[in-house]
TrEMBL record:
It comes from the Bacteria. Coiled coil: none annotated. It comes from Paractinoplanes hotanensis. Pfam families: p450. This is Cytochrome P450. Keywords: Heme, Iron, Metal-binding, Monooxygenase, Oxidoreductase.
Length: 423
């Protein structure tokens, strides 16, 4: 089993690679080029993601591409404590419990707490769009989650574009294949993002002003007591949430829009059919997960599916391939919102590290798709559109999503199109 996540073909059509991987005789093998174990197969991937006793999260944010010494020295300044994404028990269990107490974990609760905020941001962005000529919908797909996560955390919206640039650099440093020169700039950006979060939290704590959003709630929970949370832990939680909370939702929203616009009948249904809307979101998460790979580190020798992985091994867990496992899904390459077992996808992970922001992401996806389909019913993919994703071993985000108005009189009926995403 071989994977080249930085190749042109994978960036254009990862599903073809997943199909090849799923057709191999073994679902677990060592990749000499990446210097890590590849784990495919729906059951295997679910097992690894949920197993915190044999698989550590310590490697989750360690760059896939080896850092130069200079970049490594700079990145050492990102000295945030492990609290969530890269934490193991008992630290993870402690901070996870705090977040669960403060963040809605069901769509209904997320709607109650954040629904008006998400709806207002969505409305403002649609109002500001130019729809008389081709528009890149990825701008909308970036801006909505980016602004919402600032609102949710209580970060200054004026800093959103800078945060976006820092986060993009950090994601490319960890999951991309940057040159030595690019690593230097990206390492500085990563440290700057951490210092930004740490400075905001420290200033609020020093002034005795908790402030708005989740940062304020975390500081109130802390109650000036380090045994509850330290200042550094509050800042690290903010870093984790802003770092992961918009970029993954951007990928999912872009993919959901591409699938919807590929067939006018889908676009029409999103406007008023709530049942179909939810099915469309879940099938997007299965078919085109925004995170299609994740890292784990074996704590001990692990035998999985008849293969023994030595202790201390880095493992790339292939979520995209798992979501296309033909043993679980019939014709997995077909985008079919009405398929069975769609809810068994692993787009948000599994087990103790299941994405804490899943409810918020689903709220943003359904709100955005509904509003866009209602207010722009004639929207369609621009002629000649071909999907292209940012180069990454884990994050699947379209580089652009050009759209235009359908000509008057063109009926919203199902039809095939070579311009749409593969499905």
């Amino acid at each position: 089993m071989r994977l080249d996540p930085f190749s042109g073909p994978y960036s254009r059509d990862p599903a073809t690679t997943w199909r090849r991987i799923n057709a191999t005789a073994t679902s677990i093998s060592y990749d000499d080029h990446l210097a890590m174990w590849l784990i495919a197969g729906h059951d295997n991937v679910r097992t690894v993601l949920a197993d915190t006793t044999r698989f550590s999260n310590a490697a989750t944010m360690l760059p896939i591409t080896a850092l130069t010494a200079d970049a490594g020295d700079i990145l050492a300044g990102l000295d945030a404590p492990a609290v969530a994404v890269a934490a193991d028990r008992p630290q993870h269990l402690r901070t996870r419990a705090i977040l669960r107490a403060l963040m809605p974990t069901t769509v209904a609760r997320a709607e109650q707490q954040w629904g008006p905020l998400v709806a207002a941001r969505t409305d403002d962005l649609i109002t500001g769009m130019t729809t008389n000529e081709p528009t890149d919908l990825m701008h909308f797909a970036v801006q909505l989650p980016l602004l919402v996560i600032h609102d949710v955390l209580g970060l200054p919206v004026a800093a959103a574009e800078q945060v976006r640039a820092w986060t993009d650099d950090f994601a490319d440093l960890v999951w991309g294949n940057p040159t030595a020169e690019a690593q230097i700039a990206q390492a500085y950006s990563s440290v700057a993002l951490w210092r930004f979060c740490a400075d905001i939290v420290s200033r609020r704590a020093d002034r005795g002003h908790d402030g708005p959003g989740l940062i304020g709630e975390l500081l109130r929970y802390r109650n000036n007591d380090d045994s509850n949370l330290t200042i550094a832990e509050v800042a690290a939680l903010a870093l984790n949430i802003v770092g992961a909370g918009w970029i993954t939702t951007t990928g999912a929203l872009g993919n959901a829009l591409a699938h919807a616009l590929a067939e006018p009948v889908r676009w029409a249904r999103l406007a008023d059919d709530e049942h179909y809307l939810n099915l469309h979101v879940e099938e997007t998460l299965r078919h085109s997960p925004a995170i299609d790979g994740w890292l784990r580190l074996t704590i001990t020798d692990v035998t999985l599916d008849g293969v023994t992985i030595p202790a201390g091994s880095r493992c790339l867990v292939l979520i995209g391939a798992a979501n296309h496992d033909p043993a679980v899904y019939t014709e997995p390459e077909v985008f079919d919102p009405r398929r069975g077992r769609g809810g068994q996808h692993l787009a948000f992970g599994a087990g103790p590290h299941y994405c804490i922001g899943a409810a918020l992401a689903r709220l943003e996806l359904t709100t955005a798709l509904r509003a866009l389909a209602r207010r722009l019913p004639s929207l369609a993919l621009a002629a000649g559109f071909q999907q292209q994703f940012k180069t990454s071993a884990a994050l699947r985000q379209l580089t652009s999503l050009p759209v235009e108005q359908r000509p008057a009189g063109r009926c919203p009926v199902a039809h095939g199109t070579s311009a749409g995403p593969r499905s």
